C-alpha cells in the first residue's frame, strides 16, 4: 500500500482541529475540549484563562486530585515515594499549584504545545495511583506508615528504634510501639526475602541478649517469601500479617497488644 502523506497530513489536521476546541460556558468561562480523560471516562476539565504575566493559564480546577481522592487518601498520596514523584513530574512539566489545582502558564503562541504538555502531565500524575503496594515495593513502607498512623497514637510509637543491646545502631527496629504489661511491641515491615532474612538475624540477636519484647511481622506478600526463609523467621518472630490487605487480621493482632 502506498501512503499518501499529504492526505494523511490533512486528515490529522482536520481531526485534531475537530477534537481540540475551545468552548465557552454560560458563565463566560473558557474550557478546552480534548480527548484526555480519566479511566472512568470523564474528560479532563481544562480551564483557560489569562495569566498574571499576560499569557494564558491552563488549570484543572482541582479535578485531578478529586479523582485521586475517590480511592486514595490525598495526604498519603502526596507524601513519601508518590510525593517525590509528583514533585518531579511538576518540575519536568512546568506545573504549578493554584489553591489545590494544577495549572500551567504559557505564552499565547505556545498554547497548542501547552495543551498537550498539560494533558500529559495530568495523566502522569493520575498514573501515580497505580503505584500500589501490589506492584511497587518502594511504596510498601509508605503504606505501612499510613496504616499505623490510623491505628496507633503517634506518642506511643517510635520509628527506627534502637533497643538497649550492644551495638544497637546495627539492629534498628522499624517501629517500637508501647505494649501491654510494659512489654514493648517491635513491628517490622517485610517487603522481600532480604528483609525477611535481616529481620531473622535481628530478632535472634535480641533473644540472645535476653531482650524483653513481642513482635509483629507485616509482609507485603507473604506468599513470595521462600519457604525456608519464612520458617526461620517464624522460629524467632511473633505474629505475622500476610499483607496490608489483611485489614481485620492486622487490626486484631495489633490492637490486642497495644497499650
Helix and strand content put the structural class at: alpha+beta
Mean pLDDT: 86
Radius of gyration: 26 Å
Strand order of the largest sheet: 1-2-3-4-6-5
Q: How many DSSP-defined strands?
A: 11
Overall geometry comes to elongated
Query: What is the first-to-last residue Cα distance?
Result: 75 Å
Give the count of structural domains. 2
What does this molecule look like?
The chain is of the alpha+beta class. It has two domains: 5-130; 137-255, 3-Layer(aba) Sandwich (Trna Endonuclease, Chain: A, domain 1), CATH 3.40.1350. The chain contains nine helices and eleven strands. The strands form two sheets. A six-stranded antiparallel beta sheet has the order 1-2-3-4-6-5. A five-stranded mixed beta sheet has the order 7-8-9-10-11, with helices on both faces. Strand 10, helix 8 (227-236) and strand 11 form a beta-alpha-beta unit. Helix 4 (80-93) packs antiparallel against helix 5 and helix 7 packs parallel to helix 8. Mean pLDDT is 86; it is low at 133-137.
Summarize the model shown:
With 259 residues, the protein is of the alpha+beta class. The protein has nine helices and eleven strands.
How do the helices and strands line up, and which of them pair or pack?
Blueprint: H1 5-19, E1 21-24, E2 30-33, E3 46-50, E4 56-59, H2 63-69, H3 74-77, H4 80-93, E5 96-98, E6 101-106, H5 111-126, H6 140-151, E7 157-161, E8 173-177, E9 185-190, H7 193-208, E10 214-219, H8 227-236, E11 239-241, H9 247-255
Helix pairs in contact: 4-5, 7-8
Amino acid at each position: 500500500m502506498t501512503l499518501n502523506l499529504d492526505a494523511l497530513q490533512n486528515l490529522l489536521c482536520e481531526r485534531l482541529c475537530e477534537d481540540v476546541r475551545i468552548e465557552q460556558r454560560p458563565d463566560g468561562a473558557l474550557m478546552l475540549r480534548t480527548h484526555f480523560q480519566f479511566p472512568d471516562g470523564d474528560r479532563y476539565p481544562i480551564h483557560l484563562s489569562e495569566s498574571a504575566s499576560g499569557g494564558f493559564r491552563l488549570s484543572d480546577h482541582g479535578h485531578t486530585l478529586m479523582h485521586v481522592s475517590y480511592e486514595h487518601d490525598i495526604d498519603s498520596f502526596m507524601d513519601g515515594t508518590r510525593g517525590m514523584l509528583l514533585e518531579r513530574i511538576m518540575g519536568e512539566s512546568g506545573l504549578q499549584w493554584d489553591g489545590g489545582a494544577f495549572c500551567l502558564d504559557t505564552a499565547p503562541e505556545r498554547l497548542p504545545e501547552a495543551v498537550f504538555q498539560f494533558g500529559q502531565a495530568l495523566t502522569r500524575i493520575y498514573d501515580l495511583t497505580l503505584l500500589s503496594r501490589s506492584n511497587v515495593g518502594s511504596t510498601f513502607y509508605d503504606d505501612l506508615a499510613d496504616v499505623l498512623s490510623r491505628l496507633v497514637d503517634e506518642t506511643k510509637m517510635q520509628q527506627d528504634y534502637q533497643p538497649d543491646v550492644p551495638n544497637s545502631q546495627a539492629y534498628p527496629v522499624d517501629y517500637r510501639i508501647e505494649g501491654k504489661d510494659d512489654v514493648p511491641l517491635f513491628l517490622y515491615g517485610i517487603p522481600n526475602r532480604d528483609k525477611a532474612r535481616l529481620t531473622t538475624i535481628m530478632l535472634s540477636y535480641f533473644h540472645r541478649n535476653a531482650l524483653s519484647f513481642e513482635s509483629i511481622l507485616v509482609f507485603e506478600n507473604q506468599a513470595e517469601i521462600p519457604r525456608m526463609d519464612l520458617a526461620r523467621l517464624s522460629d524467632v518472630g511473633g505474629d505475622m500479617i500476610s499483607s496490608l490487605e489483611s485489614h481485620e487480621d492486622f487490626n486484631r493482632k495489633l490492637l490486642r497488644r497495644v497499650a
